[in-house]
Amino acid sequence: MARLGDWLEPHPHGIYVRPADAWIDPSQPVPRALVTHGHADHARGGHGAVWATPETLAIMNCRYGQQAGHPVGYGDSMRMGEVEIGFVPAGHVLGSAQIVLDHRGERVVVSGDYKRRPDPTCAPFEPVACDIFVTEATFALPVFRHPDTGDEIDKLVERLRTNPDRCVLVGAYALGKAQRVIAELRVRGHEAPIFLHGALQRLCDLYVEHGVDLGELRPVADAAKADMAGHVVMCPPGALNDRWSRRLPDPITAMASGWMRVRQRARQKNVELPLILSDHADWDELTDTLAEIAPKEVWVTHGREEALVHWCMTRQIKARALALVGFEDEDD
Q1: Distance between CA atoms of 324 and 332, rounded to whole angstroms?
Q2: Is the pTM of this model over 0.90?
Q3: CATH 3.60.15.10 in the chain, residues?
Q4: What is the pLDDT, as a whole number, of residue 331?
Q5: pLDDT surpasses 80 at 326
Q6: Do 179 and 244 form a contact (C-beta atoms < 8 A)?
């Protein structure tokens, strides 16, 4: 008797879908790639052809140059070899998708990275019933329970209000996190201009082109030091303690990441204002998602695989960890 999902081959550099002769999120160039989203640990350049959402293809074009891309919209399906393939929202970043594979009466959902919380910059996660659910495990430990998003943004706004002669310099990854912080500030009524490090400009522009309202954004390079007092300044995490920040008015250093839950990480990066804001599901959201979808098997990728596999096994859900490599925390 055939084993469930035996037509999928997990390799260290990606998941090979044998009856479609295609790879999901391969970390090295392949002839045919199905890509869940645009972060560099999932989307690489150099593939012969790429199938992804239009937004993900736009991000890849922006980062790697023009791709041999085939856009697949949310809810659309296509046939590749012997497999019916669809893309549904993952709620992670703009254009992020779960890849739904139907073959031989079995359904497999490869979720990529996902979160369950509302995000004004991307479509919300859509649960899909399936036989096998391939889940990430970035924050798959019970200690990781993300606080309310609005409360974290309120901390930022309050620090700004009480320090009108300073700026708050927020380190945030260029794809997804930076745009989400800006959009969440707008949702909370913060209408003042937000100043950008040059490395964030291209992807912010791309988000705006795809209909995400980020309000007024100004480049730091064009601003005088005094102009930025009392304002939010956004930069990549690597620029937080860089010489570049010396041009700012006595910055209060902040960083937006789920890893800010770990105090040692905040101290290592000299972060004065840690903002626990993640684009990944926390422990409760991971386990609630598995309970909601109720798959026959769970395959766990990159992260704290052991804890999530153990949780599944104690609930009589068959589970296994996949030894995928090359996945970083670029996006969180």
Answers
A1: 18
A2: yes
A3: 8-143+280-321
A4: 47
A5: no
A6: no
Q: Are strands 252-256 and 297-303 parallel, antiparallel or unpaired?
A: unpaired
- From 115, 132, 51, 65, select the one nearest 318 (Cα to Cα): 132
Longest dimension (CA), the chain: 72
> Which strand ranges, in their side-by-side order, compose the sheet holding 132-137?
77-80, 83-89, 97-103, 106-110, 132-137, 297-303, 318-321
Per-residue pLDDT reduced to its tens digit, 26-51:
999 999 999 999 999 999 999 999 99
* Alpha-carbon gap, residue 320 to 115, rounded angstroms: 21
E strand or H helix at 69, and its extent? strand 69-71
Weakest-pLDDT range from 5-14, 156-165, 208-217, 238-247? 238-247
DSSP conformational letter for 163 = -
Question: Looking at the predicted structure, is the pLDDT value of residue 63 above 60?
Answer: yes
Q: Compute the distance between CA of residue 299 and CA of residue 290 in angstroms, rounded to an integer.
A: 11
Picking from 112, 94, 44, the residue whose alpha carbon sits closest to that of residue 206 is 94
Q: Could you tell me which of 29, 102, 101, 96 has the C-alpha nearest to residue 67?
A: 29
Beta-strand relationship, 22-24 and 8-11: unpaired
pLDDT digits 0-9 by tens, 231-249: 999 999 999 988 898 899 9
- Report helix, strand and coil shares of the chain as percent, to nearest 5: 30, 25, 45
- CATH homologous superfamily of domain 8-143+280-321? Ribonuclease Z/Hydroxyacylglutathione hydrolase-like (3.60.15.10)
Which residue ranges does the chain devote to CATH 3.40.50?
A: 149-276
CATH number of 149-276: 3.40.50
Q: At what angle do helices 177-187 and 201-209 cross, to 10 degrees?
A: 60
**Beta-strand pair 273-275/252-256:** parallel
Relative to beta strand 232-235, strand 194-196 is parallel
The pLDDT value recorded for residue 332 is: 62
Residue 171 clears pLDDT 90, i.e. is over it: yes
